[in-house]
Structures are given as structure tokens and as C-alpha cells.
Write the C-alpha cells for this entry.
Amino acid sequence: MNRLLTVIRNRPYELLTTLAILVFILFKLPDIGIPYHWDEMGVYVPAAFRMMDNGHISLLPASIEPLYSRGHPLLFTFCNALVFKLFGETVTVGHIFALFLGVATLILFFLLAKSLFSKKIAFFATVLLMAQPIFFTMAVQVLPEMMVAFFTLLSFYGILNKKWVIYALGGSLAMMTKESAIAIPATALIALLIETIREKDLLTLKRMKLFLLGATPLLVFGLFLIIQKVQNGWYLFPEHLGYIHWVPAKLSKEAGRLFNDMLTGQGRWLTGIPFLAGIVLALFSKRLKIEAKGKNLWTFALFILLVFIFCLVNYYLTRYILYVIPFIILGGTWTVLTMLEKVFANLKGAQWVTVGLFCIYGVQLGHTNMMKSPDTCDMSYKRVVNVTQQAIRWAEQNWSKDTIEANFPVFQAIEDPRNGYLAGKPIAYTANYTHPRKYGVLFYMWDTTNIPIGPSLRYYIIKTFDDSWAHVAAVGFERTDSISPAAR
């Protein structure tokens, strides 16, 4: 008993963080059996299944067809395929591995925050991170962003603690997970350049070795691109090159959206605005008698700025910026806690800090189910899964022997029972109205005028399945002898 009390007294924040993570896991357990949603089902899970079905679990581009890899590095797909191979091809297995990545990210985040600031800041920041709607949601999603976030934290642990081998490992693994991690080596190289100018040792052997380590993730990614060119005939997936946009007239709108997603949306203004204030506060740390550790925020800001620039030309979904959220939360937490303790130094500051930080926690947690988001940045995705699942169960009962017309995400859900929607065998389907069919199951948004059939087909609605902004309609086509019957 005395030993336990000693541990509690000596390591209170470690124990509190452990308890918080256990509570987080309990809250996420009900979500591990939810069928796959959107890009889980459309890209990443099918890629892992394909790698398994081919009997070739590998990091090489040729291990699966480009239709499945989309030209991305294959570390995430490789890990998923290996997990499915070892533990089974169920939705639960896929989501448990995703939850493992989420919990590992929280633990690494705590360790990074503790090494850079203090145990107290690390505890509060970790609790605030797990309350983020985007983090809370992504913690069970089979999507690569959580793995990128984990390796980003590992990289910054190396950068800010001068452990450059750890940085090189984390940065390389991040680059082999997704191309957006390119902001990590860019940050490291700029930080090294600034340090070199300040210390005036550009030509020393030690400095050259550090620059080589700084460039290691880029060299690893370059090797992957060369192999991809040899095996697939191109460096980057041609379709993705078409997504890159640089329209000056739209840049201000895109910048505003990015600013909101990173710093103010989903209640993040409560830590995002303090983060911006903390960057300025760190400039006057000596005058205000504040620990110089706040200068770590400058490195955070450099990284976030580079991600911001990268996303300006290739940004579509909020989940893309998950890997910057931990740094905004950590910087904002440091600022809030530092200022509260300074202002309320004579009024039991620790209690005020606790109240302030947990008020922020409550506001952010309130955004976890906004019931209006088509992205996986909050828990309203469960409503989309639910309405799709209802429609597919109905179709199984009524049309299991028919070949039906289906669109995304319905056709992905019904073509493979491993996606979690089907009770029995796959339902035969066609897409894009290439063949006339008697029935269709079609996903659409907002209202019945948006059913994606088009003016050239004559149809009638048999049944609709509705929830918030997402709907699925079971329809019948009045003619089946032609692809383009008379207009409705």
C-alpha cells in the first residue's frame, strides 16, 4: 500500500494520463464493429485485401495494381494486410489495429510533451488531444492519417531533442506512409540551416552528417519513386496530378478554410488562438520570466506553415491535416497553462488551470457529433454508415438474386462481405448505368431531387432510407430494354 501511495505521489500525471487513455479506449470500443466508411471501404481496406488475395504482402509498388495503391507509398497498406493475415479479415480486426495506432499516438504525444515542457502540460495536452472531434473519430478509422501523425510525433521527438537518428527513422516511415509527410524533412532541414547559420559551422563533418540525416526521409521517398517508375511507368499517380490546383483567385478562400480547419473549427479556437498567442509570448519569455521552452512553438509554427503551403494546392478533406493538430494543442495548452498560473499565482493557480483546461475539453467534446459532416472529421459518419446499412439489409431481403444498379459507397459495400454490410453473399451490381437494370440502390445527399439518376432515365422510388444529410433510395426503373429510356 505504501509503495502504491509512493507511486501516486511521485508519478501523478503519468497515472492520470494512463487512466484517461483507458477511459478513451472504453469510449471507442463500441465503434470497432461499425462497417467501413467511405475511403476506408473505397481505397485503403480494399488495397490491403487485394494485397492479401494476391498472396504478396510487400512494400513494393508492383505488389498491387495502381488502381488500389493510387501511387501512394505502401507502408500503411502493408501493415493492414499483415494484421488481417495474422488475426482475420473482419471489420473488428481492422478497427482494433486503427485504435492501437490512436492509443500509441496518444502515448507518444505524452512522452514528447513531457520531454519538451512538463508532465503537467503533457497530461492536459493529451486529454485535450483525445477530445478533439477529428482525433476521436479517426482513432478507429482504417485511414493512413493516424499513422502519419504517429511518425510525425516520433520525428519531432528527434528534432527537438537533438536525436537525429530517431528523426530520420520517424521521418522516413512517415514518408513511406503518405506523401504529405514531406513537410517533416522540410522542417528539419530548415531548422538545421538556421542552427548552422547561428553556430557558423557549415563545413564541419558533424554538420554534414546532420544534413544527411535531415535529408534521409527524402532519399527514402526518392528511392520509392524510382522503384515505382521502373515497376509502374510513372513516379506519381497520374490521376492525382490532376488534383493539384493553383488558382490564385481561389487561394484566399482555400487559405481561410485551412485556417479554420487547423486553428478554429470544431472548438479548436480555444487552443488554436492561444497557440498563435504563444508564438508571440515566446518572443518575450525572458522579459516575462517565462521558461524558454516556449520557443519550441516556433518549430511547431514552421511545420504548420509548411503543411499549410503544401495543402493550398492539394487539400480536399479535413482529415488530411490531422498530423498538425497535436502541435497546435500542445502549443495552446502551454500558453493557457503558463498564463493562468502566472495570473493566478496567488490564487491556487493549479485549480484554475484545471478548471480552464477542462472547460476547453468540454467544449471540444461537444463537437464530436455535429450531424452535418460528409467527412470523417467527426462522429456523424456513423449516421451515414447506419443509413447505408439499413438500405443494404433491405436489398438483401428483397433483391439478393437480382443484379442491381448501385453507386458509391453502396457498390463497395455490397461487393465484399468483409466490408461489414452484408449478412450473406455479395450482391451483383453494375455502375454508371452501363447495363439496363430493373432495380437500383443509390446513395445521395440532401433531398430526393438529388438522386443520381439523371434526366434520361424513367424511375420510381420504392423506398428511401434517410438520416440527416445522407440518404439511400431503392428505386425501380420503368424500362429495362434500353440504357436510356424515356425521360421521367
Observations:
- The longest strand covers residues 459-467.
- Residues 205-232 form the longest helix (28 residues).
- The CA atoms of residues 114 and 122 lie 5 Å apart.
- Residues 480-488 have pLDDT under 50 and may be disordered.
